[in-house]
Amino acid sequence: MSNSSSHKQKSATGPASVETLAAENGRDAAEARIAAYQLVEYLERNGVDVIFGLCGHTIIAMLDALAKSRIRFVSTRHEQVAAHAADGYARASGKPGILLTHLGPGLTNATTGVANAALDSVPMVVIAGDIPSYYYGRHPHQEVNLHKDADQFDIYRPFCKRVYRVDRVADLPRIVERAFHLCKTGRPGPVLVDVPMDIFSADLPVGSFQKDPPPVAASTIDPAAVVRIIDVLAQGETAVIYAGGGVISSRATTHLAALAEALEIPVAHTLMGKGCLPDGHPLLLGQTGFWGLPIANDMCRNADAILAVGTRLAEANSSSWNTDFTFDIPPTRLLHIDIDAAEIGRNYPTEFGVVADARSALAALASAAQGRQHRNRPALRQKIADGLAAFSSNWKSEWDSDQFPLRPERILGELRKAVPEDGFIVTDVGWNKNGVAQQFRFTIPGTFITPSGLATMGFGPGAVLGVKVAQPKRAAVALIGDGAFSSNMSVVATAMESNIPVVWVVMDNSAYGTIAGLEEMHYGTSFGCLFESNGKPYSVDYAAVARACGARGVAIKAASELGPALSEALASNLPTVIQVPMENVPTPTPGYWNINDIYRKGE
Ligand SMILES: Cc1ncc(C[n+]2csc(CCOP(=O)(O)OP(=O)(O)O)c2C)c(N)n1
Questions:
Q1: pLDDT for the residue numbered 11
Q2: For residue 351, what are the contacts with CB-CB under 8 A and spacing of at least 6?
Q3: Please, what's the b/e burial string for 23-56 (b: 16 or more CB within 10 A of its CB; e: otherwise)?
Q4: Which pTM was predicted?
Q5: Is 104 left (phi over 0), alpha (psi -120 to 50) or beta?
């Protein structure tokens, strides 16, 4: 008997859980069941509690199965938003984010979000519908096939860890198991499972999804390497530990602190590494690079040895690898631990590399460091405190400024006061990302969520949805520019539909401000970067847009209104947009970015 008739019976008596369907249908091992139901049941068994996506005719078999399951489906208004939400969910939960998309335009819409997750090493499984397999070569509706038949999955090849097209329903269980295994082992990242729609609706023998992803021990560091690294660090006069996003994602911060404190070594970090030690920790130097802190750049540049962990020593954090600003390697001796062998030795001569998980490596190093001679660097903590104080004194008055439109620092100040320490701050790109990374204080690792590698404008509005779904009891606030918010405003409707009470703080400077500032600096114009109509500033009433969606919308009219507005928004437990007029000022740039040497102005 085909499963469709039993499914119709179930629908008539109200939604049944997939488990119930499995129990009823699984009694006879020889019986077949529709693949989509078995797939969803497998996802439930593997801990999937939410899927983000957007419908299409290729995936409604999956939607029907989801409707009968315990898995929540968050339906967005744009696949990019769904991908960012899945990304935010993965970062805040530690589990893979799951994205379900239609073929062709659905899959291409999601591309930016999936690529953003890939560049930030975020585990994700993308399940995409595709054209019916038996139309292969006939170029059916919505297929991508201009240079190769049935070619949509190749669009994901440059950034996915693996792209699978399922050509036979019998392969589906094995491929899905591989996708869950691969997305989270080694360097995490997205895996695509591309499924012709007839395969979702095909029969599979009951019990076909038997294999679960294997438990895998983290790759670790061998004892000789531990001794070698500890010796270099302990003997170094000016050694620095440099922490990347791998330290946060592998939950290695306690071991990092133990290592740094045992050997009295200061810690600098990348954008993704912010939160590796709590802000205010006496050994914490802060972020390096173009938008870094002078003390972090200076101590890294003058270090005799650097232990880099879970970082790819990326351009922005390394001041475009210019030896005058952040790192001067050699003469600095670089020791580098990363889960991905390809990251070691790429941009700097590396004295010693270790391919290992950051957590297990730091745990081994921290334990070996206990009892070692505590390096006497009496002036170190004072030097760090003085360096940090000197830098922040540059805008001390801005943090309390009553200016309207507001100074961005005042927005940060109000945000820090209103959002609990364990609340999440999700940024986008622009002043928000760079300013928060440089000046905002976090004490709990993982509470800063930001797009780094691809630096996608439009990340923040959607990512915050996934963060809140993952951690519903904790505050989730997106701090984003007006450019970013207006690129993905449909998030408000999604938050209302799915009851996701997040707050978007829109830093409204009526411009793609960061790029406007750059163009102004080099060319004396902001052409193409300002929001204008007929030559006059054009501004959108974002608060009214929120209200039109049924959400709360608050327009700030004076600096003093922001603090109370934030507190009310968090207490309301309703999706809220707070629109904050803001002066367009650049984030301070103590480091260097090579692009500034490229621009040439002609007649
Ligand atoms: C999708 C995408 N398009 C373009 C850019 C280039 N870009 C970087 S910052 C920025 C401006 C962002 O404007 P807004 O969100 O208003 O923030 P602000 O710079 O004003 O703080 C742009 C367009 C990008 N990073 N991502």
A1: 34
A2: 232, 333, 334, 335
A3: eebeeeeebbbbbbbbbbbbbbebebbbbbbbbb
A4: 0.94
A5: left
- Ligand 1, atom 9: closest residue by C-alpha: 430
pLDDT of residue 2: 33
Which segments of the chain have a pLDDT < 70? 1-30
Q: What is the dihedral of CA 241, 245, 251, 254, to 10 degrees?
A: 20
CA distances from 69 to 3, 65, 591 (A): 16, 6, 51
458 CB less than 6 Å from ligand 1?
Answer: yes
Model pLDDT, residue 21: 36
Whole-angstrom CA distances from 118 to 97, 106, 121, 142 are 12, 18, 5, 25
Residues 508-556: tens digit of each pLDDT:
999 999 999 999 999 999 999 999 999 999 999 999 999 999 999 999 9
- Indicate the SS3 state at residue 567: helix
**Is the sign of the CA dihedral 410, 411, 416, 419 positive or negative?**
positive
What pLDDT does residue 396 have? 85
Element (H, E) at 255: helix 253-263
CA distance 169 to 352: 47
Question: DSSP string of 12-30?
Answer: HT----HHHHHHHHTTSTT
Residue 178, SS3 per DSSP: helix
pLDDT in the model for residue 30: 63
- Which tokens hold the place of 164? 């699978």
How far does residue 531's CA lie from ligand 1's centre (Å)?
13
Tell me, what's the pLDDT at 17? 38
Q: How far is CA 571 from CA 68, 369, 568, in A?
A: 33, 45, 5
pLDDT of amino acid 516: 97
Question: What is the Å distance from ligand 1's center to 146 Cα?
Answer: 32
Both structure tokens of 177 = 């198991």
Coil, helix or strand for 99?
strand
- From the CB of 483, is ligand 1 less than 6 Å away? yes
Residue 334 phi, psi dihedral angles, 5° rounding: -105, 120
Closest CA to 64 of 106, 23, 36, 101: 36
Q: Are 110 and 79 in contact (CB under 8 A)?
A: yes
What's residue 16's pLDDT?
A: 35
- What was the pLDDT predicted at 603? 80
Output the residue whose Cα is nearest ligand 1's atom 4: 457
Mean pLDDT score of the chain, rounded to an integer?
Answer: 94
